[in-house]
Amino acid sequence: MTAQVRAREDRPATLTFFERRGYREVQRMRELHLDLRTANHADHWMQAVEADVATRVRLTTLAAEIERLGFTAWERLVALHNDALHGWPDPDPSPNANASRSAVAFRETLHGYGCLLDGFVVAVLRDEYVAYSGFGQREGDARLLSAGTAVRPTYRGLGLATAVKAKALLWARGGGYELVFTSSANPAMVRVNEKLGFVPGLAEVRLVKDLHVAVDGS
Q1: N or C: which end of the chain has fewer CB within 10 A?
Q2: What's the pLDDT score for residue 218?
Q3: Measured distance CA(109)–CA(127) in Å, rounded
Q4: Is 98 left (phi over 0), alpha (psi -120 to 50) or beta?
Q5: Start and end of every N-acetyltransferase domain (predicted)?
Q6: pLDDT digits over 137-163, tens only?
Q7: Angle at the Cα of 93 from the Cα atoms of 114 and 99, rounded to 5 degrees
Q8: Confidence class of residue 213 from pLDDT cuts 50, 70 and 90?
Q9: Nearest-5° Cα angle at 135, 159 to 180
Q10: 93-141: per-residue pLDDT in tens?
Q11: Which residue has the higher pLDDT, 49 or 212?
Q12: Between 160-174 and 187-195, two packed helices, what is the crossing angle to 10 degrees?
C-alpha cells in the first residue's frame, strides 16, 4: 500500500515537508506548450514526416481508419496502446499499474479528452498499428490538448514518435488552431516535444510513500 502526493517543483518548502516524512520522488510531469501562431518549425515538422522511417509506414488518421475498418480500428489502436504501456513511467508502483484496457474503455477515454479523430495520427505497418499521436479539445476551450503519443516498444528509437506528432502538428496548424498544450513524465518524450518546438514549463513532482514500511516501523 502506498500514499501519493503531488507538488509543483517551484514549491521547495512543500517538497521538503513531504520528503522529511518519508515520501520519495518518483517522477516529474513536465508541462509544455506550443504557440502555432509564432512557431517557425513547419519545415522541421515536414522533414520528420518525410524521414526514412516515416516513409516505411503509412501515416493516416484515426478518422480514416474508423471509416475503413469500423470498430476494428479501435481494437488495433488499443492493442498498440496496451503494448506501449510497457516501460511507461508510473507514479505509483502498484500491482495494477498500467493495466491493459479494452477497446471500448479506451475509446471512451479518448472521447473524454475530446479527441479530434481527424487530427489523431496513426502509423500503420502492414496491418499493425505501431505509433499514434493526437489532440483533443474541451468544449469552450480554444486550446488543443494532447490525447497521447505512443510507440510500440519494438519500434522505439526510430523517430516514429517525432513523425506522428509532427504530422498531427501540421494538421493543427492547417486547421487554424493556435495553442497546443501537453505534458509528459517521460524524459525521451519531453525531448521529442522540445525538438518539435514545444516550450517547457513547470513540472509537477510526484512523491510516493510506502505505507507498509511506515506501519512495520511504527
Answers
A1: C
A2: 46
A3: 24
A4: left
A5: 64-218
A6: 998 888 999 999 999 999 999 999 999
A7: 45
A8: low
A9: 90
A10: 555 555 678 999 999 999 999 999 999 999 999 999 999 999 999 988 8
A11: 49
A12: 50
User: At 177, which amino acid appears?
Assistant: Y
Q: What is the mean pLDDT of residues 161-169?
A: 97
Q: Residue 61 belongs to what H/E stretch?
A: strand 58-61
Residue 119 · residue 172 · CB < 8 Å: yes
What are the extents of the domains in the chain?
29-205
How many angstroms separate the first and last alpha carbons of the chain? 15
Query: Which residues, other chains included, contact 108 with Cβ-Cβ below 8 Å and sequence gap of 6+?
Result: none
What CATH number was assigned to the domain covering residues 29-205?
A: 3.40.630.30
pLDDT at 1: 79
Range 53-79 burial, b when 16+ CB lie within 10 A, else e: bbeebebbbbbebbeeeeeebbbbbbb
pLDDT tens-digit readout, 18-28: 999 999 999 99
Per the listing, cell 510526484 goes with: 206
C-alpha neighbours within 13 Å on the C-beta side of residue 76: 20
Neighbours of 26 (CB within 10 A): 17
Distances (CA, A) of 19 to 24, 25, 121, 201, 202: 6, 8, 41, 23, 19
